Amino acid sequence: MTQPPASHQGGPPSPESPWERPASGPSSGPPSAGPASGAPFPGEHTGGQPYPGAPASGQPYPGAPASGQPYPGAPASGQPYPGAPASGQPYPGAPASGQPYPGAPASGQPYPGAPASGQPGSATGVVPQMAGPAFDTAAQAWAAAPPPPKSMQWKRLLQLISLCAFVGLCGLALLIIVGVNIGAAALAVGIVSAVIPVPLLVYAFLWLDRYEPEPVKYLAFCFAWGACVATFVAYLVNTGVAILLDRNDLSEHFVTVVGAPFIEEIMKFAGPLLLFWRRRRAFSGTIDSIVYCGLSATGFAFAENILYLGGLGYAQNAEEGGALGGAQGVVVLFFARILMSGFAHPLFTSMSAIGLGLAVRSPSKTVRILAPIAGLLAAMILHGAWNGMSVLVQTTEEPLIFLYGYFAVMIPIFLGMVGYSLWLRAAEGRLAERILPEYVRAGWLSPPEVATLVTIGRRLSARQWAKRVAGPEGAKAMNAYQFDLTRLAFLRDRMHRGLGTRPNEINATVAEERRLLESIMAYRRVFTGRDPAAPQAMWDGYQYHVAFPDGVVRAVASPEQPVVPVPVRLAPMAPPPIPGYGGYPTYR
Q1: How many CB atoms are located within 10 Å of the residue 162 CB?
Q2: Residue 16 contacts residue 525 (beta carbons within 8 Å)
Q3: C-alpha 479, offset from chain centre
Q4: Of 7, 170, 316, 439, whose CA is between 20 and 30 Å from 486?
Q5: What is the pLDDT of residue 134?
Q6: Cα angle 372, 378, 382; round to 5
Q7: C-alpha–C-alpha distance, residues 158 and 181, integer Å
């Protein structure tokens, strides 16, 4: 096993070797020089131990820039790294298309290290024994894969308990207030009617976030914030403002057009903004912001619909027409508030989400401050315009005003937002295709593995293949593998954008990248090398080395469009260090 150069000893661990253990069979011959199955290679990092040259916990990496300063040698935002080739050009030192990689055997010649003709080691005397799976079964490989890190600190636990208690008390207080005002029966009718559209809206946001699903606890927090805290505070403020206006003989329409949009949009946005402040790494881009803000708005709409459907729909009509009259009122209001305008609150708050998403991905401090404010103002204006149409209908008794505004203004904005969200969703797949080739050239991945991440359909096909060759463990490993690769792409994109330049953020980014790479390699072992229909092959960062039926390993250049349907083994090479960090030179 060739040891990595000394200059790379402080960098990430090397990809797994393709010569880990000989392929099984009666003519396999003696094992090649390598560790026992599951044992580490010489110089390989042992799980749980610090990397050679890594600083003590909490200390910055040698050469890391001061807080707020750019990385040494890092290009300006949007510019390529020094020494990087122009778009579409090969990296310096890479062989020309169709030419072998330096050190690789000529076409038709045996691979270095293969036994001489007639010597034990292969049936033909030429084919080297490429790596079989690192573990005998997929279940063993899955059991050896590292679980996500878990830690619990008492301070964080107390903060979590306090936050949950605050949200729960707000929800309970709101429930009591609404129940007292409209009655228990109307409250029950309102809850049952208002919950009907919630699963559909929640599913729409979860479907939008399929490339990199967010933690359920964060999604639940945003929904609970909108349903309990935002609605409770907005109810108190709107009621208080209405009382003040009534005492001063002012129009109550001020609350509808100005007051309600102002406080409601602030409160719906406050939950995701709080999450961004405390858990910034939970936001990868605009899609995450739309999902978090959309769930907060969905929770708010759910609680508000209880009041409208139960109070205005059932309680008021039941006083005159009994239960039947109340049911008719609920049906009419359900059509107006749920079927025709159930998207309203998520649409308004999506303006704030776009502003927050721009702030997440921008290295400019000015953008990070002004973009969320601009988004919040746009949400208030859109909300006020929506409520203003209802006020105009009431004052002018012209229902066509609402229809004109609904079909000419709100529906186009809604459809535009849907199209923008779908474009952002597709862009997440394209981000992996654009960023992860850096790891392909470094030998961590093969080209087809990146190609399988571009669309949801390809990801599902890869999971089906992994389940076929490695059973249920293979499907679970492939799912986790794809999730971590997507997170790795977003992490690398943050580096390219110049985000997280404080010493503690640099340390956290480096540690997270190493953890992701280790997990990716562990998940890879569950399904790699287990497809009997696939040829034995490996990828060295520039080309394939494939064992042909005639018993010779030949170098094969990577085609422009990846055609190998399954992951192949990785060459025993040390990848170039991480670019752009102190102590880590750029790719050469």
Answers
A1: 10
A2: yes
A3: 13
A4: 7
A5: 65
A6: 145
A7: 35
pLDDT digits (tens, 9 = 90+) for 116-168: 444 433 333 333 445 456 677 777 777 777 765 555 567 767 877 888 888 98
3-state secondary structure of 29: coil
C-alpha angle with apex 171: 169 to 172, nearest 5 degrees? 65
Give the H/E segment covering residue 388: helix 365-396
Nearest by Cα to 349 from 408, 261, 257, 439: 261
Find tokens 């228990």 and name the residue: 184
- Rounded to the nearest 10 degrees, what angle do helices 216-224 and 260-278 cross at? 160
The first and second tokens of residue 469, run together, are 């060759």
Other C-beta atoms closer than 10 Å to the C-beta of 10 total: 15
Q: Can you tell me the distance from the alpha carbon of 290 to that of 379, in angstroms, rounded to the nearest whole number? A: 13
Task: Phi first, then psi: give them for residue 190, nearest 5 degrees.
Answer: -65, -45
Asked if residue 97 has pLDDT above 70, the reply is no
| Residues 513-569 pLDDT 10s | 999 998 999 998 888 878 887 778 888 878 888 888 888 888 888 877 765 455 666
Span 463-473, average pLDDT: 91
Q: Please give the order of strands across the beta sheet that includes 543-547.
A: 553-557, 543-547, 537-539, 569-570
Residue 60 in tokens: 């910055």
Q: Is 189 helix (H, G, I), strand (E, B) or coil?
A: helix
Which residues, 6 or more positions from 530, have their beta carbon under 8 angstroms from its beta carbon? 133, 138, 469, 470, 474
Q: Can you list the positions of beta strands (E) in 445-565?
A: 537-539, 543-547, 553-557
pLDDT tens-digit map of 398-447: 888 888 989 998 999 999 999 999 999 888 888 888 899 888 888 888 88
Please name the helix (run of DSSP H) or strand (run of DSSP E) that holds residue 570, with its range, or none.
strand 569-570
Give, for 240, the enclosing helix (H) or strand (E): helix 231-247
- pTM assigned to the model: 0.70
The angle at the Cα of 61, spanning 55 to 67, to the nearest 5 degrees, equals 135
**Measured distance CA(244)–CA(149) in Å, rounded:** 53
Residues 115, 121: contact at Cβ < 8 Å?
Answer: yes
What residues contact 383, with CB distance under 8 A and at least 6 apart? 260, 261, 264, 265, 348
Tell me the per-residue pLDDT of 358-403, one tens digit each, with 9 for 90 and over.
Answer: 999 888 889 999 999 999 999 999 999 999 998 998 888 888 888 8
Question: How would you label 253-278 residue by residue, b for 16+ Cβ within 10 Å and e otherwise?
Answer: bebbbebbbbbbbbbbbbbbbebbee
Tally: H helices and E strands in the chain: 18, 4
Phi-psi region of 500 (alpha: psi -120 to 50; beta: other; left: phi over 0): left
pLDDT at 106 over 70: no
- Tokens representing 93? 């030192």
Nearest by Cα to 268 from 380, 153, 425: 380
